[in-house]
Amino acid sequence: MKVLIAEDDSTSRRILAAIMKKWGYDPVVTEDGQAAWDVLQKQDAPKLLLLDWNMPKMEGPEICRRLKEQNPSNPPYVILLTGRDQKGDIVVGLDAGANDYMVKPYDPEELQARIRVGKRMIELQASLVEAHAALTQLAMRDPLTGVLNRRAILDRLADELERAKREKGSLSIGMFDLDLFKSINDTHGHQMGDQVIVSFARCIEGKIRKYDCLGRYGGEEFLLISTVPGNPTEGRLYERLCKQVAAMEITGESGPVSVTASIGVAAVTKESTVDSLLAAADAALYRAKAEGRNRVVYADECLRRGIGEGSPDLQCMPAGTRQACIASHGGVISGRI
Prior knowledge:
Radius of gyration: 30 Å
Order of helices and strands: EHEHEHEHEHHEHHEEHHEEEHEHHH
Strand order of the largest sheet: 2-1-3-4-5
CATH superfamily of the largest domain: Reverse transcriptase/Diguanylate cyclase domain
Oligomer: single chain
Helix content: 40-55%
CATH topology of the largest domain: Alpha-Beta Plaits
Distance between the termini: 56 Å
Number of helices: 14
Shape: elongated
CATH class of the largest domain: Alpha Beta
Number of domains: 2
């Protein structure tokens, strides 16, 4: 483990560095507060610090205060080493953010014991951070498929839309719906239905780039966020995925299970919002279903066909989707999104 030694006295620096090496630590030595602060800004900065109080350019308590402000949830473990032995000094040092306080001259065995405490605290904090990250990931994931859940994929869409507008980048979404999924459940059972959903998710995840993102939007509906450059119709990403799904080989106890998907695709424009993108993709998905399933329909193609508010394509949608689609295009479904 790395240990930062910040000490302006050259003799004390040499002694501390030698002791740290003897105890199996990797000392990083600096002679003033600013140099210590610069070391702490590096990505692989030490997490255990031995700081002198009085140093040129920046004192130990000031370093403690800055570290606490910079990373309040997981700051380094700091032991202040100083000749100040007044009660008020100890209070000031600990309030600044130091975890421990030793008055010079210190007993080496006591210092070693306090460093062991610091090491245990650092390891415990690392375990807590890791556990928190794991819980965060768990809260974002669909328990059946392991892909992002509805809330997480919508949060990701909002972030990607903001990025695309800021950087004038490309972004499209594909709304996938497994065709006739209810009949799969009815014919082969819900366990097979779950297997189909898992196989579908793995199929799509195995065919997209690491920059793209798949999430489970609802039951048998999935949402893909793609940042492939250019118009989504040009690369035919979604057509390839549609064919990959149809080519899946899934066999249940009652025989082979045929799986296909309908896909509605919407591309971002400067006027796009999360709601308008979802509504446009949903409208295209309904069109794909109406045209026979197992196909891809692009939202702008639907609009170029001049789908009006009284169109059968809209009338077959649930009321909420229909109204969202109409509203997202200013009340008239015509022209480009």
